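Technical annex, item 7. During the second reporting period the consortium partners agreed on a shared format for inverse folding records so that results from different sites could be compared directly. Each record opens with the tokenized structure and is followed by the designed sequence. A conforming record, contributed by the partner at site C, is shown below for reference.
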């Protein structure tokens, strides 16, 4: 089992020369604490009387989640005939797939021969 705090932010800017969505700026963020799973493997080699070298690989998966990023510049974000800002009528949807791969290498020294 793994637990992680996932932070994501989105900032989508369309230039004023774009035919569709010109001048739109859509921004949002989300932070979530997620539980997930982890799998990994490692190995350690003794290189001398008290020294060893180790390597480890971990793959963590916290699943996925979505959040919306509303329009932040209402002057540009009027939608069609309704007069609603895009942030009210629709938003940019961000999908986050939270996965991480970790590789660790290290050197250990054992202080006693117990």
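Designed sequence (site C submission):
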């Amino acid at each position: 089992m793994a637990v992680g705090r996932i932070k994501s932010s989105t900032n989508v800017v369309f230039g004023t020369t774009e035919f569709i969505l010109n001048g739109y700026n859509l921004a949002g963020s989300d932070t979530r604490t997620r539980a997930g799973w982890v799998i990994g493997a490692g190995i350690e080699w003794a290189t001398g009387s008290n020294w060893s070298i180790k390597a480890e690989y971990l793959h963590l998966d916290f699943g996925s989640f979505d959040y919306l990023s509303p329009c932040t510049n209402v002057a540009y974000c009027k939608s069609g005939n309704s007069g609603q800002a895009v942030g009210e009528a629709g938003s940019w949807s961000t999908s986050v797939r939270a996965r991480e791969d970790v590789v660790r290498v290290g050197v250990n020294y054992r202080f006693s021969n117990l």
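The radius of gyration is 24 Å. The beta strands are 2-13, 25-46, 51-69, 92-109. All partners now use this format for quarterly exchanges.
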